[in-house]
Amino acid sequence: MRDLTAKTDKLEKAAFLKEDTGLYVSVIPTAAAIRNMQPIIDAIQSFGLSYTGMPNLHVTVIYSSTSVKDLDQLYKSAEIDPSLMFVANIVKFEYWEGHKNQGVLVLKLKCPQLETVHYALREDGYKVSYPDYQPHMTLIDNLHEQGYKEKKAKQLVQILNSQLQAINPRIDLTGMKAESTN
Fold first, then answer.
1. Domain boundaries in the chain?
2. Contact predicate 138/104, CB 8 Å
3. For 2-180, which CATH class?
4. pLDDT below 50 — which residues of the chain?
């Protein structure tokens, strides 16, 4: 019980949740991971593109419109802890159409730890729109607006993927937080 109380105290400071709202959980790259990613950021900017920006770099663990009914139960059931460290491996860049057909550049990641948290939350009843969890970091969320329609965006992805061997494939993620979706 003492561990749970300490964990809940940490979560109350880091979480922005209200009961009867949806759930959004995310993690952020560490400062060292961002430094490691600098060649990626430089490559993106060398094409004249604006990327999402340091304050917005994150990996979504879950986005669910399912209402949070019991905050205490949520904290007990899943490992939502801002002090946890997750190790992700870079898989590749991908172009996605996006929710609004805006063109999105993502960095796909492999992280079994995040997958475990995601699926534990789903087992607890949090429903999602996409059947498979694909850990990723959105680097650009408006490619089309920046002149990179699908064909040109896919060419960009090929170029960026060819440069991946120049960086450390590991990205450390931390700072897990849970927020209300509405």
1. 2-180
2. yes
3. alpha beta
4. 1-15
